[in-house]
Please model this.
Amino acid sequence: MLRILLRRRKSMISSEDVTVSDRPQVRRAVTAAALGNTMEWFDFGVYAYLAGTMGKVFFPASSPGVQVVSAFATFAAAFLVRPLGGLVFGPLGDRVGRQKVLAATMIMMAASTFAVGFLPSYDSIGVAAPVLLLVCRLVQGFSTGGEYAGATTYIAEYAPDRRRGFLGSWLDFGTFVGYALGSGLVTVLTLVLGTGGLEDWGWRIPFYLAGPLGLIGLYMRMKLEETPAFKKEAAYAASEGSQASRRSEDEDEEDVDPVEAARESGKGRLKEIFTRHWQAVLICMGLVLLYNVTNYMVTSYLPTYMTVTLGQSDTTAQVLVLATMLLVVLTITTVGHTSDRWGRRPVFLAGSVALVALSVPAFLLIRQGGILLPAIGCAVLGLLLVCFAGTAASTLPALFPTRLRYGALSLAFNISVSLFGGTTPLVASALVEATGDDMVPAYYLMVAGAVGFVSTLFLHETAGKPLRGSGPMVETPHEADRLVAGSRSAAGRHARDVWIRLRHPWAHREPHDRDR
Model:
């Protein structure tokens, strides 16, 4: 009898706890989520490569250095409202569903990016031109506040536990494909139209393409279903709510329990995130800082650094950074697959240490003349970046439980991006302008690497494990059967060991203890 009770006390996995993924649905989920990131980063690539041109169009009265700072200030302003977007879209995604919110963010992103292409220049309407540009950027930032966290959550909740790193890496694959497409288009336009044609009207063309891309992405996201984890959580919440309602009716009490109502409200969820999950929030912010400072340094600031600060030609800088993005695209899924085998922590730790050690050598190479040495320096930065890009989408959602995942990740991610990631081009360009030291970006990356290293030390390994608050996710029914059988065997062994210890406590003492 005691063995039976012990067996029951040991948690076992039943067939109802295990979810078998639908492979076609997983492919659709990954594709639709990645397409949103592709569109978002298409805009970032365009804006990064057109920073000098946008400065001349919207801030013509300033010096070249101030024009670049002003253009990046407008770029960074979008990140100031990202936490507001996360505050709105994140908890909403936990309450009404991931799919609906992702469709809404797609509409807003596409519309605001498309509108930039129709803005008049400073010469046409004066100061109203940069104000309108700022408004478009703020709308973009607000919508993006719910985009990345929602997309990572969506893919993580669809991916089998053993392949979450590989499938999650496709999200950031879409990120860098979008950047490469945007930057590649600007490079082609620069070669075809020249600097004059680009400043007159050519800069508008990339923004016009956001409209069709947004419609395609919206169509794909409207065809998606909700994630299995969210469906189970919603069904459980509905069951708990109906039971609470019946109890309140039987006891002739109020319809809603005040404690549960406060817990489910927006303020209640926020309080729970920052009181019960504050460690996960800090770890998330540290990892996001590491990833995004490296990301925006390479993708958004490096082209301007090479042209404005180092005086290299626009074509050389654009080609080198574009080649770096292609290197990231070619290696990112390999890094994601590697994190499934070796774990997330080893990849983040190795990348953090390498970032501290190699940032200065990389920038010293970039400062050299010619093509070969700067190309090697850019490649080093790209390989450092891919360590974080290939593992972030599978690591960050696993920090939080299902019922709070979208909201908690949105807040932690966007606060960190707003304070550190999106401001990287602005801070780096301003520090270089103020100090005259063109190695400041390397020191900035070293600080980010140190912060990431400390954050990773507190990170629990999640590779191959179920998400918090969710049951196991597997690829085949056979794998589900093996998992259930293995759980029962483990529970039986545990019960047997405890039974032996209770019946024969002296059998497990050390030899010198038995001799006493």
In short: Residues 1-10, 248-263, 510-516 have pLDDT under 50 and may be disordered.
